[in-house]
Amino acid sequence: MNHDFDVISAARNWRTDAVDTATPDQIISSVYSSDVLTLEQLKARLSKPTFKSLQATLERGATLDPSIADTVALAMKTWAMEKGATHYTHWFHPLTGATAEKHDSFVSPNGDGSAIATFSGKELIQAEPDASSFPSGGLRATFEARGYTAWDASSPAFIMRHANGATLCIPTAFASWTGEALDTKTPLLRSVEALNKAVTPALKLFGASEGTRVSSTLGAEQEYFLIAEEYYYRRPDLVMTGRTLFGAQPPRGQELEDHYFGAIPDRVLSYMTDAEQQLYALGIPVKTRHNEVAPGQFEIAPIFEDSNIAADHQQLTMQVLRNTARKYGLVALLHEKPFAGVNGSGKHCNWSMSTNAGENLLEPGDTPHENLQFLFFTSAVIKAVDEHQDLLRISVASASNDHRLGANEAPPAIISIFLGSELSDIFDRLESGQGGRGAEAGLLGLGTSVLPPLPRHAGDRNRTSPFAFTGNKFEFRAAGSSQSISFPITVLNTIVADAVSALAAELKAKLDGGADLNSAVADIVKATYSAHKRIVFNGDGYSDEWHQEAEHGRKLLNLRTTLDAVHHLTDAKNGALFEKFKVLSDRELAARQEIMYDIYFKTVNIEGETTEYMARTMILPAAVKYLSELHAAGGSKAVRGVAAEVEAAADELFDAVQTLSAQNTATGGDEVHEKAHHMRDQVLPAMSAVRKAADKLEKVVAEQHWPLPTYRQMLFVK
């Protein structure tokens, strides 16, 4: 059977009517947010007093008035049914890193055999799902099943469509019966409020008159791979783990550097267009799409929005990408490292702070050296990242991201900040007392009058930096492509709130003591930068020299693996930080650490058992069958030579599988921490040995006998 031909034929026959034929103008005007219950929709359906009460919650953080719940619920139900919804669900983010939903019908039977559609304020505000099967990290016993979902009024309700209807999705938080957070959203919302309470008073010291609230903003770039659906289902490793546990490198990978920003294949472009229109309908402001570095790899990126909304939208983006791919005979892979030897996938988080008047607090303006407010808040970020390197590293830690971080394709596990030449020069001048502005941007001449001169940034980009200033925001580049962004942003919000609070207290003390604003801010910026400039690095983060300098010269942390990092989550300073800002209690923090250990253990355990299963039932039998065929073919030199190669690799694989089997059977201890370390220290090396031998076999076993789709097929057949 020619599988390559079958896949190519399927690609040519995908449904041409799958893509909406609306013009771009029509998409913008009639599709965007069409499946979102926007403020405008609510305003048109609610009385003025009710809408003002709800608006106070949405825009000023006021406590939700329960008395308006029935009115809002009626408007929400009516809108949803007009959109074709027959069911509703409280849509929440448990500590699995995914989303969860339980659908209930609007239908309520009458006693006379008829039925009506009902949805009450009580059903809107709170639901009670079975919490027993969600991870809690010891916050409650398994038999204690009660949990609550609570309406998050700050995130708009939306419609999710399927082939036979639609469902009203109500974004919610998820808590235990004792009130502890069992989700990623609750701490994120708490951190947003902590940032607001820290930054708003600081702004007043600068005489800010506009903007009564501050929130963090975020735009999360999503990288992913696409492969043909047939190949996916013929790879148990992809189905079970999301990554290939076997696969020899093809003659051509990404060496020619011809995929990045290249022409997008027609089927893929149609898929992207379909997905984007669904995302537009959900109010997700996706803007950019392009080929990424690796063959078969792509990226989609939105415009920034409030971080709690962005977190919801990121989860929806992943869901839409996965679901839509199947319509085109494709599968979207969001694992951080689905293919060894080629670039993995990240999720760059572009973070900043903004007032509700629209002012970006990390916008330097035309004269950043004179922008006191910008320098003050940038100093706070530098201080925050230096003091909490461990938390930033922990926030992106996972078994899958370990394959990517520090692999010359993503930032190293060492956290540092890239400021660029202009901003670094400004801070250096302030520290030395020179002041003023050194590096100038100017214009970039292109050597021909046909092309216009381009404005040149004063600093280049640095793709090796895990935390880079990129003009008016910081780009946290270390997040993994499959993970929820809620915890990384919770950490960022909280550590910056802590730094701003400390610097604002210093500034207030200086101003109360009679200092003028200019000199007071200059002194604080100078002292802060001097104390924390070790975290600033503008060079090559991949180089061995940087690793030596960072660890030994600058004493920065190098938490190479997830288990190295997670160990520090419950350090005293971290517990005190989260408790200070009421983001996570000690119990909630310890629960998250326990869950991270547990997920790491289970992830690698599944990979180890899948590796053993595939080697025993697919790869070794293929090698044995080919050997039998060779032995039956006679004793020519070529046959003997090939048989010897196959036999040597098969024997190596057999021995490696025996070792892996023993490690899979062992546990390393009774505690999840011990099991996790056993996975890292024993199972992963044993898996690597199995793969090494199997990949040797792939290069010498006849193609018709090889049981798995190869990298050549999966990466290049579209």
From TrEMBL:
TM region positions: none
Domain GS beta-grasp: 86-179
Domain GS catalytic residues, every copy: 184-619
PROSITE patterns: GLNA_ATP, GS_BETA_GRASP, GS_CATALYTIC
Pfam families: Gln-synt_C, Gln-synt_C-ter, GSIII_N
Domain of life: Bacteria
Family, as annotated: Belongs to the glutamine synthetase family.
Protein name per UniProt: Glutamine synthetase
Organism whose genome encodes this protein: Deinococcus radiotolerans
